[in-house]
Write a structure and sequence with these properties.
By secondary structure, the chain is of the alpha/beta class. It has 3 domains: 79 residues; 137 residues, no CATH class; 53 residues. It has 6 helices and 8 strands. It has a 5-stranded mixed barrel with strand order 2-4-5-8-6. One of its GO terms (cellular component) is plasma membrane.
């Protein structure tokens, strides 16, 4: 009678535990990818709603000592002031399409005395030691800028050393330059008047949903596949046990196969035939000897 008692064995218990772990991990990873997809959709919705709107005066949405709300990021803002060229900050390690470069951030001093940090654009350079003196100058005198509002960067990359950093953070730059600055910064869209030499414009974010949907499906598919594989192997062993009483182990099967192969080898067959001939000859010799002895015995009794 077929039975599932084999599931109580140590081997199957460990197998089942491993499948549970794999199934949970793939379920969690799939959910994580779909959470990232939802976050990206929310971010894209904010960008679409903000990036093409009318520009708002920077002073209406930016405050000193306070960061920019994520809901306001990529809003268009405008500001008028004078660039403090001497306080230009280089933002390093800004690669575009595999090409090394830097971003150039310059404070725009407004009539209130508070500065708006303006990322004026990207400059291709292989010189990681580039200084503010190596970049094109902004327009002199009073300038009106339009641009997109950005949230401050975070982490160790915001450290400012010798007017150089790896991520823009208004608090860190303001302290390094000893200037009062608005929270957040502005990615430049246009300047009036235009500079003599322009930098490469800021790249707007891509608004696709990325690969998260298909990654999530992949993880869940792997989990379903693992569970299906477990039940298939369980059914296969149950069916095998029902046919022969106990499943044939792989090692036993290999030994039997090896013996069958050896029995069919030409050398083995020739050896067996030789042994058979020798046995037949020995039997004939024994019969001949026995016949000779009988004749000798008959001759002795007749005499």
């Amino acid at each position: 009678m077929r039975s599932f008692r084999f599931l109580l064995s140590r081997r199957w218990a460990l197998f089942a535990a491993a499948i549970v772990v794999v199934a949970y991990a793939t379920w969690w990873l799939g959910g994580w990818q779909f959470d990232r997809l939802a976050d990206r959709k929310d971010r894209n919705a904010i960008v679409r709603a903000n990036e093409d709107g009318p520009p708002t005066p920077a002073g209406d949405v930016m405050r000193t000592g306070r960061g920019v709300s994520e809901d306001d990021e990529w809003s268009r803002v405008t500001a008028t002031g004078t660039y403090a060229v001497e306080d230009t900050v280089i933002v390093r390690y800004r690669t575009r399409d595999g090409v090394a470069g830097i971003d150039v951030v310059v404070p725009l001093v407004t009539s209130s005395g508070t500065s708006v940090l303006v990322d004026r654009g990207w400059l291709q350079t292989e010189n990681q030691g580039a200084t503010p003196a190596d970049v094109p100058s902004p327009p002199p005198g009073q300038v009106t800028i339009n641009g997109w509002l950005r949230v401050d960067g975070t982490g160790d990359s915001t450290l400012v050393t010798d007017q150089s950093t790896r991520a823009v953070n208004s608090t860190a730059i303001g302290e390094a330059l000893e200037r009062e600055v608005y929270g957040g910064f502005v990615d430049l869209e246009s300047e009036d008047p235009a500079p003599a030499t322009s930098l490469a414009p800021v790249e707007l974010p891509e608004l696709d949903n990325g690969p998260h949907f298909f990654y999530g499906l992949q993880w869940w598919f792997f989990g379903v596949l693992a569970i299906f594989g477990f039940f298939y192997l369980m059914y296969d062993e149950w069916r095998t046990a029902g046919r022969g009483g106990t499943p044939v182990r792989v090692e036993e099967h290999k030994v039997k196969t090896k013996k069958v192969r050896q029995s069919n080898h030409p050398y083995v067959r020739a050896r067996r035939e030789q042994e058979a001939r020798e046995a037949a000859e020995a039997a004939e010799a024994a019969e001949a000897a026995e016949a000779t002895e009988r004749k000798a015995a008959e001759s002795s009794s007749g005499a």
